[in-house]
Amino acid sequence: MITNSIPIVNELMDTDFNIYISGGKIRHGEGSISGTLSMFEMENFHIGKAIIGAGGITLDYGLSDFDIEESLVRRKIIEQSREVILTADSSKFGKKCTGPHSPYKCSGSHNHRQEAQQRNSGRI
């Protein structure tokens, strides 16, 4: 398990899970760690299933967040993941935040890694 959430690490501390926490700057209000160090670390992982959140979701802008560094880390996680699961409540829909973390259009089920690879190879 890879996380940037300090509360999740605290919750799972006494379990048998192998937990990796990304490095970077502590976001005190969020209880998370993000930044360019986290983004570079994600390049070393092949993520099977990513569970992410978003500050905003629109059909034309995709997923976005309020913190630009968090957006960049989430974008890297999406690119490195075989499957992405978005967790969001209805207040996020129709909201466009400062930092985009997914240039992909929203859909019910989508393989972002395959699309990212095709985009990087010029096939899209």
Give the helix/strand class. alpha/beta
Q: Could you list the spans in which at least 5 consecutive residues all have pLDDT below 50? A: none
Q: What is the CA-CA span between the terminal residues?
A: 31 Å
Structural shape? globular
* Strand residue content: 25-35%
Number of DSSP helices? 4
Helix content: 25-40%
Q: Could you give the order of strands across the largest sheet?
A: 6-7-9
Largest sheet: 3 strands, antiparallel
Task: Output the helix-strand order.
Answer: EHEEEHEEEHEEH
Number of β-strand runs: 9
Concise overview:
This protein has helices at residues 6-12, 36-42, 68-80, 112-120, and strands at residues 2-3, 20-21, 25-27, 32-34, 47-52, 56-58, 62-65, 81-86, 99-102. It has 124 residues and is an alpha/beta fold.
Overview of the molecule:
- This protein has 124 residues and is an alpha/beta fold.
- The protein has 4 helices and 9 strands.
- It has helices at residues 6-12, 36-42, 68-80, 112-120, and strands at residues 2-3, 20-21, 25-27, 32-34, 47-52, 56-58, 62-65, 81-86, 99-102.
- A 3-stranded antiparallel beta sheet has the order 6-7-9. The protein has a two-stranded parallel ribbon with strand order 1-2.
- The longest helix has 13 residues, at 68-80.
- The radius of gyration is 14 Å and the shape is globular.
- The N and C termini lie far apart (31 Å).
Map the helices and strands:
Layout: E1 2-3, H1 6-12, E2 20-21, E3 25-27, E4 32-34, H2 36-42, E5 47-52, E6 56-58, E7 62-65, H3 68-80, E8 81-86, E9 99-102, H4 112-120
Parallel strand pairs: 1-2, 5-8
Antiparallel strand pairs: 3-4, 6-7, 7-9
